[in-house]
Amino acid sequence: MTFVPTAAASLLAVTLVFAFLTRKRRRNALPLPPGPRPLPFIGNALDMPSKEMRTAFKEMNQKYGDIVYLDALGQPMIIVGSHEVAVDLLEKRSSNYSDRAPSAMIDMHVFLLPHRFGWAFTVHRYGQEWRRNRRAMHQYFNANAVAQYAASQKLEAHRLARRMIDDPEHFRQHIRRFFGSSALRISHGIEVDDDPVDYLKIAEEAMDIFSTAFEPGKHLVEVLPWLARMPSWFPGAGVKRDGEVWRPIVYKMVSVPWDAAMENMRRGTAVPSMVKGLMERMREDDGPDEEEVIKNASAVTFAGGSDTTFSTMQTFFMAMTMYPEVQRKAQDELMAVVGPHRLPDKDDEPSLPYIQAITKECIRWRSVVPLSVPHRSLEDDEYKGYFIPKGSIIITNISAFSHDPRIYPNPDPFSPERFLKDGEIDPTVQDPAAIAFGYGRRVCPGKHFAETSLFIVIATVLHTLSVSPVVGPDGQPIMPSGEMTHGLLSSVPFCGHR
Ligand code: HEM
């Protein structure tokens, strides 16, 4: 019996031999970073953690070193285990490491409006469209622009204090309102208090979906995009069903505030905002899609500004119930500097080092974006003698870096003192903001806004109230566990109302 190879079989054979030879040559030249041993065909698929990812990745880094390689069914992944390596790759080589992975979620139209831009530029590929969105947001959130919001934040902080005193039971709602309304005023010029629409609920629901959908490594469809073409009963394709439910909820977050802002502009009642400013400056030669850029960038501002800072504040409340002596020291400082007759404001910041240190420690102690948003490399690279293939997904374990004893000795307790020396902020201690807000060209554009908002809210709460744990039916305080939820965004699973 003789075999006559078909053209397809010959092509396949040639491709396999070519792939083998080129892989061999590349491997011979430089090794891949260390990591768990891959299995034939499936690589490290079985090593991919399905939950507790931050801990599993941390353990891998402890075992194999600060740079670990995983082959997730053919998708190269680099697990970065230290802040230093993250800076080396994502900042010093940012032109290569600023892409995001193509997302099946986006292809499945969960995060896509019926036009060619996905609205969440957080997940945009590196390129012109991402740049235009980012530039639009930067104009309103760079350090100088943020300084101009101090007066409105002060007003908002006063309203917050009033609500907290009148109705302490619902303190979480009041805090959420502070961040959501500050962001929505800047992005769309909408006053939450004067509007019957529950914009904050809309944002909360959309961000829950965003967090679930983009949790790094959670959905197989992101690694095997062909699953998106399978029926939803097919194993791993069930997320398509979720997508149908998610899409209108996510879309509401873009369209509802946008329609309101457009209506205000038509009526001539619009107050200054990102939408108004950018729409007025839109030039004819900007092209028809410029309006879409403005629509998307403002929605992302509202979305990003609402949930992340709110989660950090939950960390603050948890820490204050667990560490009452920190709270006492902070209140002593506020009483000495601000006094009993007024509320703290931005200008007090240099005189309140202990409050500054608490803000830093809240950002460090519990990461609200624990694995950041993964970056992706555009070209083959070499780092410390290892080969990093083009198209690698780069995971930065922010929660592990923030607890790295090489940077923060004795990292587990909540200790603002770690940032202080002789009663002043110690400039030699690594600022946790340089870790928590990500790296390089993708670094969080809301960073300055988040930091100033957190400072003013923390100072206001501590100057007007005392935080204590909920008391159970047996009269005993119910202490929070210190645990955080899982997802792209992480928060405190709260155990009470106060
Ligand atoms: C405590 C508060 C916050 C934390 C910890 C945080 C953290 C992060 C992190 C880790 C990233 C990914 C960075 C990377 O890829 O390297 C990110 C991206 C982003 N954040 Fe934040 N963020 C916070 C607040 C905000 C606020 C207030 C806004 C909006 C006003 C915002 C808007 C964004 C946007 C739009 C991106 C995507 C940037 C891009 O892909 O180019 N964030 N943030």
List keywords for this structure.
498 residues; alpha+beta; Cytochrome p450; 4-stranded mixed beta sheet; two-stranded antiparallel ribbon; 18 helices; disordered N terminus; binds protoporphyrin IX containing FE
How does this model look, in words?
There is one protein chain. The chain is α+β, with helices and mostly antiparallel strands. The chain has one domain: Cytochrome P450 (Cytochrome p450, Orthogonal Bundle), CATH 1.10.630. The chain has 18 helices and ten strands. It has helices at 7-29, 53-64, 83-91, 104-107, 128-141, 143-147, 150-166, 171-188, 199-213, 220-223, 239-267, 274-281, 290-322, 324-337, 353-365, 398-401, 433-436, 447-464; strands at residues 67-72, 75-80, 375-376, 381-383, 386-388, 393-396, 420-421, 424-425, 470-471, 477-478. The longest helix has 33 residues, at 290-322. The termini are far apart. Mean pLDDT is 85; it is low at 1-25 and 111-117. The structure holds protoporphyrin IX containing FE.
Briefly say what this structure is:
By secondary structure, the chain is of the alpha+beta class.
Small molecules bound: protoporphyrin IX containing FE
Give the strand content.
5-15%
User: How large is the count of helical segments?
Assistant: 18
What would the principal axes of the Cα set say about the shape? globular
The number of E-state strands comes to 10
Question: What is CATH's topology name?
Answer: Cytochrome p450
C-alpha termini separation? 82 Å
CATH class: Mainly Alpha
